[in-house]
TrEMBL record:
InterPro entries: RNaseH-like_sf. PANTHER family: DUF4371 DOMAIN-CONTAINING PROTEIN, RAS-ASSOCIATING DOMAIN-CONTAINING PROTEIN. This is Zinc finger protein 862.
Amino acid sequence: MCDETTDITTTKELVLLTRLVDSNGQAKSTFAKVIPLQDGTADTIAAALKTWLQEKNISIKKVMWFGSDGAAMMTGRKNGVAVLLQKENPLMTAIHCICHRLALAVGQAGERVPYIKNHFKPNLGELFRFFAYSACRMARLHQIQKLLDLAQNTLKEAEDTRWLSHDEACKSLYRNLPAVLMTLDNENKISATSTGLLIWLHKYNTLATLYLLCDLLPHLSSLSRCFEQEKIDLQQIDRNVKAKMAVVRSMREGMRPGSRLAKLQEDLAVMDAWRILNCPVMTQSGRGRCQSPCQTIMAWRKFSASLIILVQERE
């Protein structure tokens, strides 16, 4: 198993791990080496791998699997690293990391939802940077968390390269939402960025999407952790995949009792809570006007169903 990286001196390197099966049939993963590279071409990487095998006196004929992140350079059909190695060992099987594939499926589903791509995800990143890049703002956030008897946690960054980070980012915002709103309100007079973020967090679409993702993403993270186990059971994986698919389908059909999304809808039924939220009509034109709770709930159901359909299509 290998992957490219760049160290602090901007040197391109190849991180190599091995997974061996002993005489008792037990598998063991071991860190092998960090190999400096002149460039990131498939020929260079394949040559580096073969050189390492020769140094360890291991025949390439004994290498049965090649694991990677599925990048075109690694798994390209004509000149990928896997193809170059398979020319010397046709029995070798190339494997695309299943956790990475799951993350790609979820990410691509989100990219096909205009609101998540153009509004929710960029603003979630901006909110993280607003606090993470300022020690003073972070200190004020912690002070308000203490006043509200909340754990002094920080917001998490959602990175496409870290497939569990989106779940952590949404959960951290959900847990700290009261403190975040109060901090942004205090910063409102001196920061235009805080004003924009405060307006965004008061919108119905923002809260509804946050609640939905807090219900959905933990199930996908759980499935990803199942794939990451040192020792896997294919029957267990099959059961888990089917169970998560059933959860996604059930979310499309309606809100489950006890879910965060169900709690949001209960809050919207109370007129006092309703007045706090800025609830625009969700139209394709993007123009908003005030509407009744019943109308917005119907619009939300349509919006959430479209997102769930996209996730199912990526399964």
